[in-house]
Design brief:
Helices cover about 20% and strands about 30% of the residues. With about 325 residues, the protein is of the alpha/beta class. The chain folds into two domains: about 220 residues, Spore Coat Polysaccharide Biosynthesis Protein SpsA, Chain A (Alpha-Beta Complex), CATH 3.90.550; about 90 residues, Hexapeptide repeat proteins (UDP N-Acetylglucosamine Acyltransferase, domain 1, 3 Solenoid), CATH 2.160.10. The strands form seven sheets. The protein has an eight-stranded mixed β-sheet with strand order 5-6-4-1-7-12-9-13, sandwiched between helices.
Length: about 325
Amino acid sequence: MQAIVLVGGLGTRLRPLTANTPKQMLPVLDRPMIEHVVGHLADHGVTRLVLSVGFRPEAFLEAYPDGKCAGMPLHYAVEPEPLDTAGAIRFAADHAEIDNTFLVLNGDILTDLDISALSKSHQASGALGTIALTEVDDPSRYGVVSLGVDSRVLGFVEKPHRDEAPSRWVNAGTYVLEPDVLKRIAVDRRVSIEREVFPAMADEGSLWALCSDAYWLDAGTPETYLRAQTDLIDGSRGRLDPIAANAVVAGDATVEHSVIMGGAVIGARAQVCDAVLMEGAVVESGAVVTNSVVGPGSRVGSGASVTALSLIGGGQLVAAGAVVVGARIPDEG
């Protein structure tokens, strides 16, 4: 099976980390986010990947010059202009000449979803499309799916009041589609698959769903990007080594529940808790970094404090003694 992975967004919620880097190329522990996504697809028999690219396609080309990502062959479909989700899917499928059942997934979703089970469910139902659903605590933040007893999708309710939601099951961003779905997507304008195509399919009874309790995380916000890292070290998804072999940590520094990437340096008496230091980041003596991300090659000066979901972009300097609370440096407005 082939898979289209949507990686065309600007990643504005993660700026300035994404000012020059697509969010799917941001590192999650030991490798770019996209490689976590592709590795999971390979585990379920996907043999060819189509990247639907918009923002900075050269970042992917430079990272994978041999045309393979995590060992899987890549096909690039570079959007000439923003086409929204459905438009991007049709453009990528046409560009890659997909004419059989195929997968679609959002490239910033990290999940342990059983894709093989999703595919089998789709084949058994005879549906034109099958979407994976995940259960959330607060459905008022999402488009909630209303389901029939046979797992047929009856409709969508956008951001309902918590007490009025028909369910707590929401679109998990992974789909199995038949090529006929592409014919429903206009080619002369932007088209959303979530707001236009799927509701129309639900109305005619051709859209089904599979509910899954597998691990699922939309890693596109500062909070969830941090969680994507720590989930890989605290037992939620394993217990990988959080400190790179070539990182340097002073003997009297405190490092708790944090990811320290290659070449990072933590000085004497510094404290790094619930945080991510990207490649080559430096936290000088006595500085504190808590619940924040320090970008590649950036420096937090002696005695400075960086807290409360602050994002420090690449190559930046937080001056000695500065107090940074919930800020983005540089602030791009």
